[in-house]
Design brief:
It comes from Paraphaeosphaeria minitans. This is Capsule polysaccharide biosynthesis. InterPro entries: AfumC-like_glycosyl_Trfase, Nucleotide-diphossugar_trans. The protein is α/β, with parallel strands linked by helices. A six-stranded mixed beta sheet has the order 3-2-4-7-6-10, with helices on both faces. A three-stranded mixed beta sheet has the order 9-8-13. A two-stranded antiparallel ribbon has the order 1-12. A hairpin with a 4-residue loop joins strand 8 and strand 9. Helix 12 crosses helix 15 and helix 13 runs parallel beside helix 16. The radius of gyration is 21 Å and the shape is globular. About 45% of the residues are buried.
């Protein structure tokens, strides 16, 4: 990205160019496609079924920015895939035939349903972190804050109590970690139990090929469905009738069943196993508020994707002209994200049915619109690569909450 005279927002500092890998994209892509052997836990894991070269261009820019920002701090960016003969095939890193690592449908390549790619990627996250440690991030996550600094403060510091870093969508008294950013060391006890429960959900009834109906599993008894208050006229049944709020809740819960598994483990007291999820969370999880930390554009625009796209596509004022009202709104978005957020998650998938087009879906549909010099979107991208917020995100103050379940993890109660 060529240098531009964008204003440095208050609360943000420029990174020394010596700390950044500012070589041309082709050289960055070569490093991403040919990562060094695994030698430490400082790995940033991504997954895209058809590989980095086939990811949408705006998400390739996201991943390149991770490399440019953090490779010189010792982090290696790894974009795994399921392409035959690819050195980055997930089978070269994990035993896909191991029933304790993947469900049969993953090994057979028979995961189906409308959101099969998302559920395939869900199944690689915990196994990669359990074996190798580091960070798992969605390709749609734009990193803003200092990953290396928060790692050194938490997981990477053996004297720190913080063993997991993630965003939390549940509020200080809730437990709802977002699976688009997980950070942990190897063999984390929370993630090990989460994955064991997720595998049990996939194994039910002799083995499932989709997440449909998993929300009703006896292993999740006592867990409320997600999003039960939504009223979404855009989602209809096959007969044309509107899906009611309960139906939307079931759809959302099945879609993010990995999140449900995590909530259950975080809210479980299993005395036979010596596991106290509520206490572990209060003492060992560095939870960042997900709205301030990773969804601030949606806060500014009330989850209106077309509005966010329109504002960020605007050109900045030229020749000393005063900014318009919309330019002022776009500036506040960029300055707010760069100074207050740790990242921004570009949303896709089922959320489009629930809320309509998102900034991510519109950047995908309008190729290159996120990278036009002189626009607010380009200012945001430039800032995520060359600048950093002065402060690390604060940890939510979690207390020891009442458990949802008492008893063995894999026994229905």
């Amino acid at each position: 990205m060529e240098p531009h005279s964008y204003a440095l927002p208050r609360g943000v500092h420029a990174l020394p160019t010596s700390d950044l890998d500012l070589r041309p994209d082709a050289l960055i892509d070569h490093d991403i496609l040919n990562p060094s052997p695994i030698a430490t836990e400082k790995n940033v894991w991504f997954f895209w079924h058809s590989g980095f070269s086939n990811i949408h261009s705006y998400t390739q820019r996201n991943i390149r920015a991770w490399h440019r920002r953090f490779s010189r701090c010792g982090w290696t960016i790894r974009v795994l895939d399921r392409q035959p003969d690819s050195p980055l095939n997930i089978a070269n890193f994990l035993d896909i035939k191991d029933a304790n690592t993947f469900p049969k449908a993953f090994a057979d390549g028979t995961i189906g349903g409308e959101h099969a790619p998302q559920h395939t990627s869900d199944l690689v996250r915990w196994p990669l972190l359990l074996k190798y440690g580091g960070v798992y991030a969605d390709v749609g996550l734009m990193q803003i804050g200092d990953l290396d600094a928060i790692w050194n403060k938490t997981v990477g510091d053996p004297t720190s109590p913080w063993e997991i870093v993630s965003y939390n969508a549940g509020g200080p008294s809730g437990r709802s970690l977002t699976n688009y950013f997980f950070c942990s060391g190897k063999n984390n006890p929370l993630f090990e139990r989460c994955h064991r429960l997720l595998l049990a959900l996939w194994a039910a009834g002799g083995g499932k090929t989709s997440t449909d109906g998993m929300c009703d599993s006896p292993l999740l008894k006592g867990m409320p469905h997600m999003g039960r208050t939504f009223s979404v006229p855009g989602i209809v049944n096959e007969d044309g009738s509107r899906v009611d709020s309960e139906g939307v809740g079931r759809m959302l819960t099945d879609y993010v069943i990995q999140g449900q598994a995590a909530i259950m483990v975080m809210s479980l007291v299993d005395e036979e196993d010596g596991w106290n999820g509520p206490r572990y969370c209060a003492e060992h999880v560095y939870a960042i508020d997900y709205m301030e930390g990773s969804q601030l554009i949606n806060d500014f625009t009330a989850w209106d994707g077309p509005r966010a796209f329109r504002l960020l596509s605007l050109q900045l004022p030229k020749n000393g002209k005063e900014e318009t009202q919309e330019q002022s709104e776009a500036r506040q978005i960029v300055e707010g994200c760069l100074s207050r957020s740790f990242g921004f998650k570009l949303a896709h998938g089922l959320i489009i049915k629930v809320l309509g087009d998102t900034l991510g879906s519109l950047w995908r549909a309008n190729k290159g619109s996120d990278d036009v010099p002189g626009t607010y979107a380009h200012w945001l991208r430039y800032g995520t690569m060359h600048w950093c917020p002065d402060e690390l995100p604060q940890r939510q103050d979690w207390k020891v909450e009442e458990p949802i379940k008492r008893g063995p993890l894999l026994r229905a109660s």
